[in-house]
Amino acid sequence: MNCRLSFLIFLIASRGAFASNDVINTRIKNTISQNTTVNVSHVGTAKDWALTDKEWSQYINLMQGLSGHYYKNLSPPEVLGIHAESMDERRHFAEIAATLEHDKLERELRFNAAFHEAAKRLYSTEPMIESFDYTPFTPIPKN
Fold first, then answer.
1. Could you report the per-residue pLDDT of 19-37, keeping only the tens digit for each?
2. Helix, strand and coil percent figures for the chain, each rounded to 5
3. Residues 94, 81 contacting (CB under 8 angstroms)
4. Do 45 and 113 belong to one domain?
5. Are 111 and 103 in contact (CB under 8 A)?
6. Are residues 34 and 103 in the same domain?
7. Which domain holds residue 67?
8. Are residues 105 and 49 both part of a single domain?
9. How far apart are CA 111 and CA 113, in angstroms?
């Protein structure tokens, strides 16, 4: 009798666990589909990319089509520049992209300089790069 009662409790508990797993799986699927939607467009706003609201809308529309597949790793000004209909428009988006890239690189180089300065200050007694032993890779033995 005790074994039957334990088995019955196990079955009831198992059914509850499977039911809750179904709910969890549903939630995971919903989260994944929501993330897929977010990944289609770049994070940011027109202002972040120095674009007008009209240009931003054009970019969003482009990314919902084949451009979203082909150009998912490009910035909004680059995508718009690729689809520009005139040389002036292409030049406009190229200038935006060049300015944004220049500013990004300038920040990265300033941080890089600060990093190396900190490394020298914190680890001045240690070599930055350890000497490398080429012996295992040299076919001719040293005498």
1. 444 433 334 444 444 444 4
2. 70, 0, 30
3. yes
4. yes
5. no
6. no
7. 41-121
8. yes
9. 5
pLDDT reported for residue 12: 54
Chain centroid offset of residue 57 CA: 22
Q: What is the dihedral of CA 132, 133, 138, 143, to 10 degrees?
A: 130
Shared domain for 11 and 57, answered yes or no, is: no
pLDDT in tens, 101-112: 999 999 999 999
Mean pLDDT rounded to a whole number for the chain: 78
Residue 9 in domain: yes
Q: Is 131 domain-assigned?
A: no
- Cα–chain center distance at 80: 21
Q: In the numeric block, which tokens belong to residue 126?
A: 């240690």
**Pair (13, 69) in one structural domain:** no
What is the model's pLDDT at position 131? 76
